[in-house]
Design brief:
single chain; 298 residues; alpha+beta; Beta-lactamase Inhibitory Protein, Chain:B, domain 1; 2 domains; six-stranded antiparallel sheet; five-stranded antiparallel sheet
Length: 298
């Protein structure tokens, strides 16, 4: 786990965790028609932290103004439930992009429940007033964080500022492209051997001397010249303009060729994939595909 400097305010908060990690309180109960269809009868629901829950700790949404049906949010055993202890939402501003699950848990404590595998799913924290904090992990790091209060959702300010008006998919695609470019530059640098001392000779100082030895290219030593680094392929603006929303992945590759880098992540709406290209005018662009179809253009 990465080491982080802990601000004094955070340190005081961690010391105070037991003070507000009180046990949950059932504030109301109600009987509703069994929605499973397995048998006739009623199901008893409990209201905890402003939200309704089944006996096996699945959240149930109350019907809207004109609705009559209660809706359970998950099938049995699809989430990992930990506890109903209420969470203090005033400390959410410490969340930032790229935090690991360990970082988040160390900072905020154990979530009330988890959906999906660790590092690739959702964590939920519930406040006493019915407001929930939803943290989404993508490829092992924090990618989204927002509040949920029934019909209203809004992003956590600290994460929203880091996204800068872009989607997390765009930011992760840019991050992946920079990593590929950095790796390519590293491979193109000449390799330097570790310093070594030349042997002593008669008539020379007995003191050892250190020198950095740079590898001589094969052409200078009489061998075959090294292969030049592969150039970064570019596309024309006209080719980019030929890509349209809804176009298939195969058609994009047929029109533009292989991208300089690609990044994909599975989301609740399907598999999101970003194809990055270098345009002749110097721009670096990313095309977002959803389930194999172009969803967003630069």
């Amino acid at each position: 786990m990465r080491m982080r400097t802990v601000p004094f305010g955070l340190f005081a908060f961690l010391l105070a965790l037991p003070a507000f990690a009180q046990e949950s309180v059932v504030t109301a109960t109600t009987w509703v028609d069994d929605w499973t269809g397995h048998h006739k009868g009623k199901v008893l629901l409990h209201k905890i932290n402003g939200r309704w829950w089944t006996d096996d700790n699945r959240e149930v949404y109350a019907p809207g103004k004109k609705g009559v049906f209660w809706e359970v949010d998950s099938k049995p055993d699809t989430c990992l439930f930990h506890h109903h202890r209420p969470f203090d939402l005033t400390h959410v501003s410490w969340l930032h992009l790229w935090m690991s699950p360990d970082d988040v848990e160390q900072m905020l404590g154990e979530p009330n429940r988890e959906f999906g595998p660790r590092g690739q799913g959702f964590w939920y924290y519930y406040g006493v007033d019915g407001t929930a904090l939803r943290v989404r992990f993508m490829s092992g790091v924090l990618g989204e964080a927002d509040y949920d209060k029934g019909a209203k959702t809004w992003p956590v300010d600290s994460v929203k500022q880091e996204l800068g008006g872009r989607s997390i998919y765009e930011v992760m695609a840019e991050r992946a492209t920079k990593k590929v470019d950095s790796s390519r530059r590293t491979r193109e640098l000449p390799r330097v051997s570790s310093p070594s001392a030349p042997p002593n000779h008669v008539g020379r100082s007995s003191h050892s001397q250190q020198a950095s030895i740079i590898e001589v290219p094969p052409s200078a030593a009489g061998g075959a010249p090294p292969a030049p680094p592969e150039p970064i392929s570019t596309i024309t603006a006209a080719a980019l303009a030929s890509v349209k929303i809804g176009m298939s992945r195969e058609d994009v590759l047929r029109s533009l060729g292989e991208p300089s880098s690609r990044f994909s992540v599975a989301g609740s709406d399907g598999v999101n994939e970003y194809l990055s290209y270098q345009v002749e005018d110097g721009r670096k662009v990313a095309i977002r595909l959803l389930s194999g179809k172009v969803k967003q253009l630069p």
